[in-house]
Structures are given as structure tokens and as C-alpha cells.
Amino acid sequence: MIRLYWAPQSRSLRALWVLEESGLPYVRELIDIRSGVQQSPAYRRINPMMKVPALTEGAARVTESGAICAYVAERAPEAGLAPPLGDPRRGDYLRWLFFSPACMEGALTEKFSGAHMPSASVGWGSFERVFDVLDAALAKGPWLLGADFSAADVMIGADLYYSMEVFKVVEPRPSFTAYLDRCKARPALQRAWEIDAAG
């Protein structure tokens, strides 16, 4: 059985959403990150980075939300959350799956902190470049892989929701708004939000 270690109002939303999309049975274990329980030796054995989310299934341990999304997508091929090996869309899928932690998070940290980093020195280039590239991709719609929703949309959709609607760091653009409306209409995300709110 899949066990998800999670906390509300965190990157755990990505894991909740992908699990709800997958249809796989899972149990949740709430980690009260405000109490510091994630620093306990028991939890550090699950995730040495002392962060949520984390996932276990038997002897498997998966940390980092992008890795969790990839793992869940592969565990539930019938849900169609990832193109199969050999599918030419696989490259775009992997690119967008990792665009979130590799580019969006760095760009958002730069914007939040007010720090200016030389674009040649950081992997994301610049805040403007990241969101211009994302804008161009989402303008093609409806999803990052065209007609097919994937785990990459979970990663990008969750980040865009938080950065544009919750923290208001990213200015709305027509492609972002339309994409988020499509994400928010998904029953799996609505269920994930309900779980998150009940935390």
C-alpha cells in the first residue's frame, strides 16, 4: 500500500493531486511540520531532507514531489499520466515534469527575495525567461502535451496556482488563467484541495 507523508499548504498538494488522478489506493500520514516532527530520527529515515511530501510503498521510498509524480504515473499506467517509453512525447513530458523544481522554483525564489542573479550563472536563466517560456507552451493548450493531461501538468499546475493565485508573485496572463481554469475543473484537484483544507 502506498503511504503518503504530507502536510497541508505545502508541496504535498502535488502528491495528493497526482495520487487522486491515478486512482491508486493510498493512505495518508499527516506530518505536523510546525511541531518539528519531521526532524525526528524516524522521519529522517524516510526523508533525510526532513521535508514533505514523501512516499513509501513496501521497501520503496520516494522523496521530492517531482519524483513522486513520476513514480505514481508509472505505477498507474492505465491513468495515462505519462507517455509510455518510446513515445516521442516522453521528452516533453520529462522536460515539464522537471521544469518546476529546476526552473520555476529558482525563478520564484529570486523574485521573492528580490535578489538579482546573472542569467548566465543560474540554471533558470531569469524570472522573465521562465514565465515567457511557460506562457508560450501553455498558449498551445490545452495541456503541456497537447490533448493529454499528464503528471507534468500536476507539477506545473500546482506551482502556477500557488505563484499566481496564492502568493501573487506571477502576473496573470491569458494562457496562465485559462490553463489554471482547466486544472481547477479537474475532480482530482478538487478532491486534493478538500483533503488539504481538512488537513
Automatic annotation (TrEMBL):
InterPro entries: Glutathione-S-Trfase_C_sf (IPR036282), Glutathione_S-Trfase (IPR040079), Glutathione_S-Trfase_N (IPR004045), Thioredoxin-like_sf (IPR036249). SUPFAM superfamilies: GST C-terminal domain-like, Thioredoxin-like. PROSITE patterns: GST_NTER (PS50404). CDD domains: GST_C_8, GST_N_GTT1_like. Residues 1-80 form the GST N-terminal domain. This is Glutathione S-transferase family protein.
